[in-house]
Amino acid sequence: LLTELIKVVENKETPCNAAFLGPLCHVFVTHHEDVKVLLTSPDALDKTYHYRYLFNETNLLVVPGHVWKVHRKLLNPHFTSPVVHTFIPLFNIKIDILVRKIRENILSNEPDIRDTVHNCFLDMICATTFGVDLNLQEGKHTEFAEAIDNYAKMVARRFFNFYLQVNWIFRWTPVGRLYHKSLNVLHNMTKKVVKEHIKNRQNSPELTSADNSSSTLMHHVVNLLEDGLFTQENLYDTVEIMILAGFETAAVTMMNIFLMLAMHPDVQERCLEEILRVCGQDGDVTGQDIVQLHYVETVIKETLRLYPVAPTIGRKPSKDIQLRNRIIPKGVHIIIVSYLVHRDPKVWGEDSNDFKPDRFQPENFSKIPYYSYIPYSAGSRNCIGPKYAMLVMKIVLVKVLRKYFFYTARRLKMSDLKCAMYTTIKIIQINELRVKERLQ
């Protein structure tokens, strides 16, 4: 349904359109000036009703703006660059496993590496969130990994099916039953890890140091719990939403990047040249390496422009809000279609649907209005984890491109690609991605 609505909005000349979805009026926004108003207004911090289907109504993504401000301020210290960089050794280890697993895919003649990549990203985010190594890439805790995967699929089905959004209907459907079963597996794992973490802190008082910059998210939120700043429910919600929202968005984006490189071998080789010059033929990636991977970063950003983490961003203003050409009444559900904001030919040029990483070279990107590029949202209620995601994706590209070459099963053009809109954008032709070992 959302895919069809976006097609309708895309074909309209006005950058602000309205439609009723069920009994509720939705306004669709695609102009960067309107986006700026919405994402910077203190009266548009509340999310639309859609987000409550991602988890529950008390997590960071969904809570009202005044609650979100408090929680976000408490969590921000964990997502600074110095803290994120302490995870680089762990990322190197986990991505080395990914490199080995891709080779196993090749040797077993299994071209689809989606599950391999997803397992790696879930493994990493669980390690940095829970603070324990679940070894998911090695086949450990398979019930947990399957539950997370099933949960993401069931959320996507509920997100865009109106009858599934009715709670009393949803819980009696096969989708609802699998959703709740998967969520219980996650809850039980979280409770187990929290209990173990608190027990370890009691046995090792030095673990309670609040200024430990290498602490995991679990360490940070347990500190908040002990200081009386978080409730037990806040703790569980925060840990679980970071896993659920974080791993799939990064893994899907990573697969999209691989496909863009496969379709543009000249870009892939240019990335490899920079990687070999900065990082060498093998060995671990360092923090100093990360900041020098300028072209690799443009490739990631251009992929996120074409296929942003969230295809839409929903806001529900608490007061009437003035956009460029009209006033939107309070309580109306406003949908920012970031997928179309990123492809506006008046901003990005007539080739806005083409993959051109050089758009993000400083001399070019400086000409782009700020709110024309919002892959992780923007303004005061933006995503908390872009530094984490960028760091991980750079290390993956370094380690994987040094060993493997990506190509497609048939020659694909950008115009051949079709998208399915779920909670993330998924390219239907991703199953045509192929990988082979590089000749050393």
Keyword list:
alpha+beta; Cytochrome p450; two-stranded antiparallel ribbon; 52% helix
Can you describe this structure?
With 440 residues, the chain is α+β, with helices and mostly antiparallel strands. It has one domain (1-437): Cytochrome P450 (Cytochrome p450, Orthogonal Bundle), CATH 1.10.630.10. Helix content is 52%, strand content 9%. It has 18 helices and ten strands. The protein has helices at 2-11, 32-40, 65-75, 81-85, 88-107, 114-130, 142-159, 167-170, 174-203, 217-226, 232-263, 265-279, 287-292, 294-306, 338-341, 345-348, 362-365, 386-401; strands spanning 16-21, 24-29, 313-315, 321-322, 327-328, 333-336, 404-408, 419-421, 425-427, 433-437. Strands 1-2-6-3 form a four-stranded mixed β-sheet. Helix 6 (114-130) packs antiparallel against helix 11 (232-263), helix 10 runs antiparallel to helix 11 and helix 12 (265-279) packs antiparallel against helix 14. Mean pLDDT is 88; it is low at 207-214. Pfam families: p450 (PF00067). It is a peripheral membrane protein. It is found in: Endoplasmic reticulum membrane; Microsome membrane.
